[in-house]
Amino acid sequence: MGGWSAFVTCCVWAILLLALFGDSLASTPEFDPYKVLGVSRQASQAEIKKVYKRLVREWHPDKNKSPGAEDMFIKITKSYEILSNEERRANYDRFGQMDENQNFARAPQGFRHYHDSFYFDESFFHFPRTSRDFTDNKHLLHYNQYINEVLPDSFKRPYLIKITSEWCFTCIHIEPVWKDTVQELEPLGVGIGVVDIGYERQLANHLGAHRTPSILGLINGKVTFFHYAVVREHLRQFVESLLPQKLVEKVTDNSYLEFLNSWHEENKPRVLLFDVASNIPLLSKLTAFAYKDYVRFGYVDMGLTETSKVVLRFNINTYAPTMLLFKENTDKPADVIQARGMKKQIIDEFVSNNRFLLVPRLVNQKLFDELCPVKQFHRRRKYCVLLVTGEGEQFVSVNEAFFDFASSNTKEVLRFAYVYQRQQQPLCDALLKKEDTTPPQVIVLERRSATGRVLYRTVTGGWNGSDDDKLRLHKLLEILQRDPSYLTHDAMLPELNNEFASMFLIQWINTAYDYIAQFYFDLLYSNWREMMPVLSLIFSALFILFGTVIIQAFSDAGEDKPAKQKATDPPKTAESSPGQESTSSRPPKKNFVEVTELTDITYMSNLVRLKPGHINVVLILTDASKQVLLRKFAKEVYSFSGSQTLHYSFLNVDKHSQWMDSLMESAPDARPSDCLDEEEEEEDSASNKSDYTGHVLALNGHKKYFCLFRPVFTGEEAECSRWSDEDAATAAPSKASRSRSSSRQKATTLEIHHKLDRLGLWMERLMEGTLPRHYVPAWPGLDTITPQK
Q1: Domain of 628, in residue numbers
Q2: Residue 79 CA: distances (Å) to CA of 35, 70, 84, 144, 413
Q3: Is 300 a member of any domain?
Q4: Which of 552-566, 648-662, 750-764 has the lowest mean pLDDT?
Q5: Lowest pLDDT segment from 337-351, 587-601, 609-623, 719-733
Q6: GO BP, one example (predicted)?
């Protein structure tokens, strides 16, 4: 009896040991992503991606019909998932084989498979396998892939994205519905994506998905969550609701002529789809969304009596769906397709080959780039024949003659287009600047670079649409076929104006409407976690606004008292004592910028020994104009006070009257020629003394040069006072003149204030480095002080 008990005990222990370690004893070789992809452990991400793309093309089940192609494809995809993610790759290199649900932080390597050794009857627990099937693996999204590929593509087609995880048992119940929906919508052109929240937490947070399972739609870069029961019909309706309204216009006998004739306003071909169905097919809506920038779609329900005339007008077969594409000629379609059960590939090819009018109008840069691409190779030359015309009635016959010529010249290397001069004035000016001509003109051009460089030639004699004009244009095109160098003119074209761009106010209203609609939708379904960022933004904006109003109210109340006190102070004059001047050498606090006085003490540090790359901006003033000019100077330079390389000072010419004369004598080029002639005539006049009040100098002490700003004309000064370095950079030297005025004592406070009106523009040019520089051999000394009179 004891032997039997010992035997049973041994058997139980043996079974337990086999259960615990049997998987590791009799397991198949471990999965190695490096071996599957055939790369080394030191391979870079670029090498891994290159090999992955090659293997995917080789083993894709749609192309490789071998029995093991699907399994191999899954292995390749899984290997790339591991090695393309740096964190998962590091975990694999550290722990070895990666299970689907391995916890790297807790599971020791020796016991990482123990949970796989127990057997549960899945049919009893109703737990099917949690590993992803082929459909999900094919549509897995990564963060970089979403940002670089899916997000831009959402402006051409909607995406349906599922958020899932490996231990989400609720996700198992929606799998059959999801799979059927994918099989129905993907062939129609709907993008499909799957995000594993366990591996792609960054992407899930970016999408705003915090629970599984979740289904969301993406269109035009905007994410919308699905809140209904996961039923195939609901998902289809959800995708259809993502598309813009009135994407496909319903056309009847009363509206088909208006629909076809509106090609001129929208500059797009028209497509009429004939079918017997009350609702517009989803495939037609998806195609219309994909080509919304090129083609306008209309739908004719052949089952209605209101469409019998248009069906009879174009002799449509009512037994099969038909698509007619119209361009400029609305009486006869440019292309036709008719087939039962139209496929997406057929419709895409049909629309893509006819997405441009025969002679489209250039309305934006995107159309210009596609219609007249930049030359890549010699054999791929594209010549753009451009008609510069107008919108009036006098140009109608000219435009029609150009269209007739284009209709009879359909060579692949030629693209015909026209522009309205009023709408694209910069483009027309660039092409007609060398030709003293006016529209209508025909120009043949070839684009050489994406930056706007073109070679072109204008057809001589203009374009009136006569037979002689057509003959001249035909000969020019024939010469170009033999000799491409016949295009002799060179130009840089500006970017085209977008004629169909909506106003800023309309864009703002549409954006605000989208946010309000999304907020209401989230509020309706109590999706509070997803609403938190929006609510946080709203309350933060209200808090900032409320706080700003309170602070402004208190600051305004505090500033009233100093203003009243200043009003009672006596005005300072030129006869003020030196002690009073020293207390006012710094500008008041309201000037918002620190301005120091340039004296014999600060002269060396603020100019002569100034750090390389630093500039001292010096205002020239007098005792009488000191307060007024300092206030104006501080306000003009305040926006530039954030620069660490700019310093601000002022020089009192009543104290140092000879310094400016010495500086101007060291740099003769700083004096305008007209004023130099006047000086020669007035040399002997002692009463005529140079007035430098309101001048501003930008001094570079290290490189020994300065830029000069001369004040604007105030009404009592000579004509020379209007000239400055800013004018010298844009105007001819003959117009330059220099300030010379003997009415300094007559100048009013208002006039002195206006001397610095253009200083802000001069400072902008100083920061750009476009002002003339006047070099000096050495800086004049500032040792002597002029005695007060």
Answers
A1: 592-668+691-713+746-788
A2: 9, 14, 8, 17, 46
A3: yes
A4: 552-566
A5: 719-733
A6: autophagy
CA 560 to chain centre: 46
Helix/strand/coil percent split, the chain, to 5 = 45, 15, 40
Structure tokens at 529: 């976690």
What are 187's two structure tokens?
A: 């062939």
Provide the pLDDT confidence category of residue 717 given band limits of 50, 70 and 90. Answer: very low
Residue 646, C-beta contacts closer than 8 angstroms, at least 6 positions apart: 614, 615, 617, 637, 640
Axis-axis angle for helices 45-59, 69-84 (nearest 10): 170
- Write down which residue in 497, 518, 547 finishes a domain: 497
Q: Total structural domains in the chain? A: 6
C-alpha to C-alpha distance for 616 and 647, rounded to whole angstroms: 5
Rounded Cα gap, residues 726 and 145, in angstroms = 51
The mean pLDDT value for 620-645 works out to 86
The H-or-E segment that residue 525 falls in is none
Decide: 699 and 607 in contact? Cβ < 8 Å.
yes
| CA nearest neighbour of 480 among 410, 419, 414 | 414
Q: Which residue has the tokens 């099917």?
A: 128
Largest CA distance in the chain: 143
Give the full edge-to-edge strand order of the sheet including 159-164.
Answer: 191-196, 159-164, 214-219, 222-225
Compute CA 435 distance to the chain's CA centroid, rounded to the nearest angstrom.
35
The C-alpha atoms of residue 465 and residue 472 are separated, in whole angstroms, by 11
Describe the strand order of the beta sheet including 441-447 as a list of residue ranges.
Answer: 414-420, 383-389, 441-447, 453-458, 489-492
Is 230 found in the same domain as 266?
no
Is the separation of the CB atoms in 337 and 322 below 8 Å? yes
Asked whether residue 480 falls in the same domain as residue 523, the answer is: no
| Dihedral sign for Cα atoms in the order 204, 209, 213, 219 | negative
